[in-house]
Amino acid sequence: MARKRYAIPQYGTVIMAGKEYYRTRIEDADGKRVALYGRTREELYDKVLEAREQIEDNTFRRSSPTVKEYCEKWLLLQSAQVRATTLTDYTSKVNRHIIKPLGHMNIADVTADDIRLALVPVSKKSASVYKSVNILYKSIFAAAKESKVIQDNPTIYLSGKNGGVPQKEKNPLTDDQVERLLDAIRGLPPYVFVMLGLYAGLRREEILALQWDSVFLDEAAPYLTVCRAWHTEHNRPVIMSELKTKAAHRDVPLPDCLAKCLREAKENSTSDYVVANSEGEPLSYTQFKRLWQYIVTRTVKERSYYRYENGKRVKHTVKPVLGERAAHNGKVVYSLDFEVTPHLLRHTYITNLIHASVDPKTVQYLAGHENSKITMDIYAKAKYNRPDELAGILEDTFTLWDAE
Question: Residue 368 has what DSSP assignment?
């Protein structure tokens, strides 16, 4: 933008080192008077304009809120526009991935490089997490610019892609892996959770909010209704009737193996919740992590833990060997040479529906996908990524063409 110019004022002069200079004084951002010099009136005039721009910019930056202050204001504004479940997700990600690394900075001082550095740890997570955090950064800084809290938006240079970090393809569990997983945890706390993921395709928040009043085992065709969602606030469980999307509310038929599992679980249950803690209440976040550790400790994934020995914190690394028993717990056998996540159970369910030739619209309904594109992306990868089957189809097709 061109700098406005007015009539060049008259300046005083001063002799320094035998040379004449034009001189004037202005107040800096702290209110102190400082002198500026130039060999010509035009040179001094340009210096004055430049200095005033810098002073205005510094004053603006000092008066701008911190990233933490503005993010909290932005979240408050969002609370009137989005679902409670969405706001909970926003709050968690903003606190963890924006306020934690940048919250102490004035928002007007944040550069694109500051944001890129803050996104490095996020790039090691899933592509969906990276994308959603990236969108949050863009939304918050765009709102700050629109409200004239900042002059320039540093997020316009950010890529929506995962920082150039390739994402590992998540393959569904094979039939053999499913069998080994269930054998490894049969009779243990995560068994019912895993069965619901594998054979009903429920999301983690849907499983942990599921109550017996939504499980209909005495019907001719047993089914369950997804009508609640689990979230945590400060590690405490919050059960909400508001779901992620309208499509998440669905009735899911139960295959025989899952119906049998749930009947046995219900007979021994004293809780309203299908998956509950020892007091019959829904799990906290920490309790869920503890539940999932039953699976993690049975994998061969290398892991570390710390112990205090003689007053010092000592790191120990465990390198499990498939088939061996854990050194400090003879009940644990390292029987899983693959990783398992809650979402992978659901992904396996959806993929198995596709391989069973269930039509895409039915898959979309059972998965609770609001957007058909999500379903079709999974459908395309699962259905058309089998070279052996495609080879047969192509062979028949080109044979037919030859005959014509």
Answer: T
Burial 64-97 (b: 16+ CB within 10 A, else e): bbbbbebbbbbbeebeeeeeebebbbbbebbeeb
In the block, tokens 């993929």 appear at 351
Q: What is the pLDDT of residues 290-312, one digit of tens each?
A: 999 999 999 998 888 788 888 88
Phi/psi class of residue 248: alpha, beta or left (left: φ > 0; alpha: ψ in -120 to 50)?
alpha
- For 172-299+336-404, the fitting CATH number among 1.10.1060.10, 3.40.50.300, 1.10.443.10, 3.90.180.10 is 1.10.443.10
Cα–Cα distance list, 213 to 217, 274, 276 (Å)? 10, 10, 14
Strands of 250-253's sheet in order across: 215-216, 223-226, 250-253
Neighbour tally for 153: CB within 10 Å: 18
CA gap 72, 90 in Å, rounded? 11
Nearby residues of 139 by Cβ (< 8 Å), 6 or more positions away: 74
Q: Where are the domains of the chain?
A: 12-63, 67-157, 172-299+336-404
Largest CA-CA distance found in the chain, in angstroms, rounded: 106
Q: Whose structure tokens read 């259905």?
A: 383
Q: What DSSP character marks residue 39?
A: S
What's the pTM value of the predicted model, to 2 decimals?
0.68
- Domains 67-157 and 172-299+336-404 fall in the same CATH topology: no
The percent of residues above 70 in pLDDT, for the chain, comes to 86
Instruction: Name the helix (H) or strand (E) containing 197.
Output: helix 191-200
Q: Note the helical H segments in 64-190.
A: 67-78, 84-94, 100-102, 112-119, 127-146, 175-185
Question: Rounded distance, CA 161 to CA 163, Å?
Answer: 6
pLDDT in tens, 203-232: 999 999 999 999 999 999 999 999 999 988
Do 348 and 198 meet the contact criterion of CB atoms below 8 Å apart? yes
What is the Cα–Cα distance from 304 to 143, expressed in whole angstroms?
A: 42
Are the beta carbons of 363 and 379 closer than 8 angstroms? yes
Distance from C-alpha of 204 to C-alpha of 342, rounded to nearest angstrom: 6
CATH topology of domain 67-157: DNA polymerase; domain 1 (1.10.150)
Of 262, 259, 258, residue with least CA distance to 275: 262
Q: Which helix (H) or strand (E) holds 251?
A: strand 250-253
